[in-house]
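Appendix B. Worked example

We walk through a single record from start to finish. Start with the input: the chain for Putative taurine catabolism dioxygenase, Rubidibacter lacunae KORDI 51-2, length 362.
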Amino acid sequence: MNPTEKPSLKSLKNRRRRVQLSAADLVRETPLFDSQSLPLSIEPVAAELRLTIWAQQNRDRLLSRLHTYGGVLLRGFQVRDAEDFGAFVAAISTEPMTYSYRSTPRSQVHGKVYTSTEYPADRTIPLHNEMAYARQWPMMLAFHCQQPATEQGETPIADSHRVLAQIPEVIRQEFANRGICYVRNYGDGLDLPWQEVFQTQSRQQVETICHDAQIDFEWWGDDRLRTRQVCQAIATHPHTGKAVWFNQSHLFHISNAGAAQEYLKANFDPICWPRNAYFGDGGEISEEILEAIRAAFAAETVVFPWQAGDVLLLDNMAVAHGRRPFSGPRRVLAGMADPYSAAGGVPDAVAEDVPKLQQEVS
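Next comes the structure step. The output line below is what the pipeline stores for this chain.
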């Protein structure tokens, strides 16, 4: 075009199209660590990009990355408040979940958004998969850091398939064959009351929930409840087909009670301990086995510092999470979604007609 000529309307339209940003141009994707594929970091190129709006427009892409990497750190987006975070979870999931059959103390913040586990700041929460102590669990888990701690307070994560591979074969096979039995006693100041765990004041409703979830129960003492449930130790991920370590044996076992362990052993019969884990046939799980499991988690742990506004999206079966001790104020919210149950609700390890674990772990 001659410099003295005015551009045509057609050329102006073409020029405008060339400078428009595509969905891919709005964000950059990079592994957070050079030597680790977990987590994938997604950051906006320009400021003031609202996470919920971007996620609504890029849902398939985001879920594809989640299934590929297991964990996605969304950093630098605008997340206005707990309501906005809840809207993000709803936008990318099919069914946001209420936190029911609880294991830890949490507070409801807005809708189906909760505080992360409210344990004392000086306590470590070992890595685990959310609700792996049950037969139904969320496939998707999201955390939103509103305020990082002054020191530490990270949420470490680990690839559950790689954790399984780290556990010695003889231990893997024993858990696959025998499953895990969780025994819980509620209330009396030693653990959560049954009213909080089951989110009801009705004994009849508790019994209905237990029947539906195949949880054995008994009432004893002064309004005390004891439950027993046999669950999976190793599960197969429905999207990737990979075998994953998927249980909370090392959390529920009495050896995880810390300083309270000796008090409980000295003053209570084992059947009355707040919680404990056994093999599915009732056999004891040795501390040597539990140490091997904890070592497997330690070998695969990935840690990054929280930044205010971060959202961490996890495939709950593919990736475990925990919490490190911290000092100073810390506020991390949590949301879970997309309930999933193993086929038939019966763990492979206790079903006589299901063959032993055959999948090679690499």
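Two observations about the output. Residues 1-21, 344-362 have pLDDT under 50 and may be disordered. DSSP finds eleven helices and 19 strands in the chain.
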